[in-house]
Amino acid sequence: MSLEELADEWELELGEPYTPGAASEHVVRVKLADGTPAVLKIGHPHRESEQEADALERWDGDGAVRVLRRDDARNALLLERCEPGTFLSEGAGDPLGVLIELLPRLWKDATGFHTLADEVAWWNLGGELGDLARELAATQGELVLVHQDLHGENVLAAEREPWLVIDPKPLAAEREFAVAPIVRSFELGHSRAAALGRLDRLCGELGLDRERARGWTIVQTTAWSGDSDYVKEHMETVAWLS
C-alpha cells in the first residue's frame, strides 16, 4: 500500500516530508480530519526499532510523543507532532539538564521488551571488549525500559511539553546503559572534556555507577559504529573513555 493510499484510509491530509532518519523510512507531516497536526511514519521492520510503538505506548506521552494510531502489519505509525520541532542540541540552554529530567520518566516497567543481554549476544563482540560486554550484561541491576539511541537530535521542542522524545530503539536494560548514547552525542559537544563531563554529570545527578556507565558507552558505541556515518567521532569518544 502506498503512502497516499494509507493517508486516504486514515483520513489524513499529506504535507511536507521530513528528512528521514533512515533511507528506508518515510516520515511526513500530516493533518487529521479535524485539522490536528500529526506525523505519519512508515518504514521497514528493523531489529532495533521493532518495538518502537510498544515503547511509545508504555510511556503514554510521559516525556515522549504519543501514538495516535498504529498498523504493525504495514509498519505504520501515526504520531503526535512536535512543534516547533527544534532539536534539543540546537534549542536548549542546558540540553544535558533536559535529558537528566527526562531519563527517569522513561525508565518504566520493561516487561515484554527485548533485553540488553540478548542485544549483547547479537553484537557478538570479540576479545576484551566482548568479555567486558558479557560481564556487564550478566551483572546488571534492575531492568527498566531504556531508549538506546537517545541523543541530541532525538528530543524535539514541542507544545504539550517543552521537550519530547522521539524514535525509540527500546531495550530492557539497567539504568547505567541508558546514558551511553548521551555521552557519545557529539551534537552536545565533541571533545574529551565534553564527553567526560557528560558522563560525570549524568552519573552524579542520576545516582548511577560511573564505571558501569563508562563501560556500556564503550561497548555500545563500538558495536554501533559499524553501521554509522560517524565512525570517526564515535571512535574518538571511545578513545577518550578508555
Task: Outline the fold blueprint.
Blueprint (H helix, E strand, L loop, with lengths): L2 H7 L3 E5 L8 E6 L5 E6 L9 H8 L7 E5 L4 E5 L7 H4 L3 H12 L9 H8 L3 H12 L5 E4 L7 E3 L5 E3 L4 E4 L6 H4 L8 H15 L3 H16 L5 H11 L1
Antiparallel strand pairs: 1-2, 2-3, 3-5, 4-5, 6-9, 7-8
Helix pairs in contact: 5-6, 6-9, 9-10
Please provide a written account of the structure.
By secondary structure, the protein is α+β, with helices and mostly antiparallel strands. The protein folds into two domains: 3-80, 2-Layer Sandwich (Phosphorylase Kinase, domain 1), CATH 3.30.200.20; 88-241, Aminoglycoside 3'-phosphotransferase, Chain: A, domain 2. It contains ten helices and nine strands. It has helices at residues 3-9, 52-59, 88-91, 95-106, 116-123, 127-138, 180-183, 192-206, 210-225, 231-241, and strands at 13-17, 26-31, 37-42, 67-71, 76-80, 144-147, 155-157, 163-165, 170-173. The strands form three sheets. A five-stranded antiparallel beta sheet has the order 1-2-3-5-4, with helices on both faces. Strands 6-9 form a two-stranded antiparallel sheet. Strands 7-8 form a two-stranded antiparallel ribbon. Helix 5 runs antiparallel to helix 6 and helix 6 crosses helix 9. It is globular, with a radius of gyration of 18 Å. The N and C termini lie far apart (48 Å).
